[in-house]
Every structure is written in structure tokens, then in C-alpha cells.
Amino acid sequence: MNKKIDILYEDKDVVVINKPAGLVVHPDGKNKPASASREKTLVDWILKEYPRTKNVGEPTVLSDGTKLLRPGIVHRIDRDTSGALIIAKNKKAYEFLKEQFQEREVHKVYNAFVYGELKEDRGMIDRPIGRSSTDFRMWSAQRNVRGEMREAVTYYKVLARKGLPAATSTAQAGGFTFLEAMPKTGRTHQIRVHFKAINYPIVQDTLYATKFYLEQKNQLGFERTALHARELEIEVPSGKTIKVIAPYPEDFEKAVALFIE
């Protein structure tokens, strides 16, 4: 595995890493687990560094009965999202952490850059999310869904705005907002879906931002979704509450510098 994984916190029960952008957390079954050409995932790193975690957690079972291991994985972040992710090192820790995520007791803060300048300094996006009816890869907080809509709530706080000239005269397209996003629920793609739903998609999100945004000049320099899991606050089995801050990767540092120069 070529991507360097930094450890931000570790004790006998858990380890918190700073996941690099571009790394998938666990296999999706599209490639056979034993295949030499299969894309390496975080699971490969976990099994190498913490082999005793092999049977910790709940594997994914495919339609053909194949089991894909998810050792110690209590939550996940998307391939192109970087930042803090906690891994359980034993079964007791797994159940302890899992309960906190289920009860929504874990405090998570993401940083993101979105297209457009948000008007309100703080806000809440309270929109249920369901599977998109037009693209199996996508989720939606709008009308084009199939199946059940599930509750989804995201709070946000604007950190900075920057008006940069756009390729069009549309006012909303002429700038960017740097913000904190605090998801209360943990739906798949939640932050990305919610900001698309209010017409401020995340910068360089090739799945949810429209061509209108993606075809403009890449003024912030991102080559991946501009989303970073910045803070994770959670109680660990020892009884103490930890707050871990994941340092920015280089692309985030460069973009932040444009806003605070």
C-alpha cells in the first residue's frame, strides 16, 4: 500500500488514524478478495498492522455467500474524504464504540469547501435521505428517490467566504465557502447530499456537483472531493473521552491559505 497512514491516537482498545484521500475503507465485492489486482483498502492495512482484529466486527456477506472482512470498522468515510477514523482492536471495544454511533453520541466535525457563498453564518439542514432513482451510486435529499427516506440532520458553521471570479455571471457560482459540517445522523454521503440539496455542492465532488460547477476553472486546486473529517470526540473503553484532530492534508492546507491570506 503506497498511501501513508498516520496514527493520531492509540491505546489497548482502539486506534484513530488520519485516513488519506483516495483510500477505500473496505472492499465492496467488485473484485475477488484474493485477486492480486484488487484495489488495496484500509482493511489490508488493519490486517497487516493489527492481525488480531481479523474477527472483530461484522463482515459484509455478498449474495454468493462470500464474506468480506471489516475488522474493527465501526464507521466509514468515503474514498475521497480524508481524516479521522476510529478502529476497534477487540470485540469489547467494537461493541462499546458501535453503541455510541448508534445512539448518536459521537461528535464529528468535518471541514469542507463548497461552491457559492452561503448567506447564513450557521444553519441546519434537516432533510431525509433516500437512494437516488436515477443513479444507483447516489443518494438524494430531494424528490427523485426510491424506497425509504431516512432522517438526516447536518449542522454547519461558516468559517470563511471568498468571492472569486467565475466563468459565468451567476452570482452563486462566483465564490466559495469554507465551513464546518457537524452531522447528527450518519447516512451514506450525508454531507455531500445535503449541500447538493441546498445548491451549494462540495468542491470537486464529481458525483454530486453538476457539470456547471465542475467545468469551471479549478480555483482551489482540489483533485478530489474537498471534504475532511477534522475532529472526532468519543468515549473509549477505558472510560475517558478523547478528542482527536486530524491535521489537514496538503491540498486542504493550500486551499485554507487562500481564505486566510
**Assembly state:** single chain
Text of the CATH class:
Alpha Beta
Low-confidence segments, given as residue ranges, are: 166-172
> Whole-Å distance between the termini?
36 Å
Taken in chain order, the helices and strands follow as: EEHEEEHEEEEEEEHHEEH
CATH architectural grouping:
2-Layer Sandwich
Structure explained in plain terms:
The protein is α+β, with helices and mostly antiparallel strands. The chain has one domain (6-260): Pseudouridine synthase, CATH 3.30.2350. It contains five helices and 14 strands. The chain has helices at residues 42-49, 91-102, 190-197, 211-214, 250-260; strands at 6-10, 14-19, 60-61, 67-68, 82-88, 107-115, 122-126, 129-132, 139-140, 145-150, 153-163, 175-183, 227-235, 241-245. Strands 1, 2, 5, 6, 7, 11, 12, 13 and 14 form a nine-stranded mixed beta sheet that branches. A three-stranded antiparallel beta sheet has the order 9-8-10, with helices on one face. A two-stranded antiparallel ribbon has the order 3-4. The protein is globular, with a radius of gyration of 19 Å. Mean pLDDT is 88; it is low at 166-172.
